[in-house]
């Protein structure tokens, strides 16, 4: 009975994140023979396979929204409001393909995204032009993601990384970003933190960023049955945001609550998701 409930929970979560093509995509990604850039022993494999990615993903989207040009591209060209789960499923597929897939499949996926980026151009509300293929904007998206995934894994990951492994994760995560067209990428944790600091003068509150935060945190596109666990994930993501990012997004800073209830709730829900989506142990 327990295994049946576990299987149903795992299937529901996987279907929501991976979409209807998820099972076939997973079989293709993990079942195809061929050389891969990363192995299960690599830090990037361990981080991206962990349930803490649910927290890191929400934090990354919140942080990325603070760059007006990056947010303009999302707001004007992405279907994150009309089809938020479709966007999540495409992002999930890209991360899986480029982390766990063969080099051939990873490069094909990277090429497809580059072609999409070449078509995304426009003008932000402040009058500045933007292009999704801009190496500087691609670097920002990467820095926000790498920082978010690593911090979420540090806090909620099942297997913590050593200091050297954290540096290796930053270097390995830069591989795909570089192939997408980003340049001058950090190769270790110190470089990642410096890059994040250097972007701060470019970040600011915009109506689009605040609306995106409200959408993700207050009006999430999830069924009522899974609103409570999603709320715990969202609270855990907010709890990992730096203090300087809170005011522009109009999210509170509650140090005592975040150090106790929020952290405990995030740990519970990530463990539950990890248990639900992991394969059952085989009996001997």
Set out the fold topology.
Elements: H1 2-18, H2 22-31, H3 43-48, H4 53-64, H5 68-77, H6 84-100, H7 103-119, E1 121-123, E2 129-131, H8 135-156, H9 163-180, H10 189-199, H11 207-217, H12 227-239, H13 243-249, H14 255-277
Antiparallel strand pairs: 1-2
Instruction: State Rg.
Output: 18 Å
Number of domains: 1
Could you report the average pLDDT, rounded to the nearest whole number?
A: 83
Work out the helix count: 14
Overall strand count: 2
Distance linking N and C termini:
19 Å
**What sequence of helices (H) and strands (E) makes up the elements?**
HHHHHHHEEHHHHHHH
Give an overview of the whole structure.
This protein is mainly alpha-helical and 284 residues long. The protein has one domain (2-277). The protein has helices at residues 2-18, 22-31, 43-48, 53-64, 68-77, 84-100, 103-119, 135-156, 163-180, 189-199, 207-217, 227-239, 243-249, 255-277, and strands at residues 121-123, 129-131. Strands 1-2 form a two-stranded antiparallel sheet. α8 crosses α10 (189-199). The longest helix is centred in the C-terminal third of the chain and has 23 residues, at 255-277. Mean pLDDT is 83; it is low at 256-260 and 279-284. Pfam families: MPAB_Lcp_cat. Residues 45-269 form the ER-bound oxygenase mpaB/mpaB'/Rubber oxygenase catalytic domain. This is DUF2236 domain-containing protein.
